[in-house]
Amino acid sequence: MRFQVNRDVFSEAVSFAVKLLPQRTTLPILSGVLIETTDAGLTLSSFDYEVSSQTVIAAEVDEPGRVLVSGRLLNDIASRLPSAPVIISTDEGRVAVSCGSAHFTLLSMPVEEYPTLPTIGDPSGSLAAEDFSEAVAQVAVAASRDDVTPVITGVQLEIADGSISFIATDRYRVAVRQIAWAAADTGADAATALIPARTLVEVGKTFGHSGDVAVSITSTDDRELIAFSAGNKTVTSLLIKGNFPPVKRLFPESVDNYAVVGTAELVESVRRVALVLEREAALRFSFSTDGLTLEAIGSEQAQASESIDAFLTGADTVVSLKPAFLLDGLGAVHSEFVRISFTATENPNKPGPVLITSQSSKDQPGADNYRYLLQPNLLLR
Fold this sequence. Notes:
DNA Polymerase III, Chain A, domain 2, alpha+beta, 381 residues
């Protein structure tokens, strides 16, 4: 095998191929990148039985073939090569990489032992890449990081009525974003897929500026997987098995009691007042016609409070919220103002979840279909 390729193109392709590889694996062969010659040039692939990445790039192929090399090492080398064409060749189990005056020799891995990459079905539909990337970033912060309950470590995709919803929860909050979906002629009108949040975040970052992203949901006898494709890149992921909790029903149809606050001002105030909090402690938020007052009890040595403008509709309300969870929601709103709505419960001593949505102005709700529901802590009395 021997080929020549543009240095920048090759480095970017290797970086994409290794991005989703696990940091540690019990099977060293799964840490490799498979390089194969094709009619179009080169195909670079990685696969760890759960996630696969594949990209095709142009190259001048002198001798066809396929080789498997350590992905992390090849990525480190490719990212530091000088600005010159890259020449790669193989000889008796070794891979030679030459670029300008730089030369490397790597051991190849047994390519015949490498697993076959998953087969992708016909596209189920497509969505705008920028909307897709934004929706993933907004929702994934609410996914659980506790592997004890795998079903809530993922992001649920729900396709219906020409739209696709992204949903995540960790039991303390729920995030939902809905965007337009263009179903393919062969695609189903309704479908669901539960994808590991970590994988989906990387896919969102990778395909954020790719025009449209094609999505394929494939079911076989023993596995279900989803594929995202844009340009010359494809990522597949096994779906998480299990039933995602029906958290969308927790969102109220309407709320009459709410406050509108400047997003940036609220973020800065939360960060300041939270400085004196002990770990896992909550901030007290008092909403009234005079505005919003933030209070941190903190330790015996430190307390803090701050008042900012807020425009309240309905009754005065006091809630206690964890600052980190609140900041996640505020950071995902992407609007100058934010609406904080106070839901009611049957128990007057227990505040209902707080609903955070975007607000275009003091009087005009946002239109991005993003909702973030946060369960408040019981008030300290």
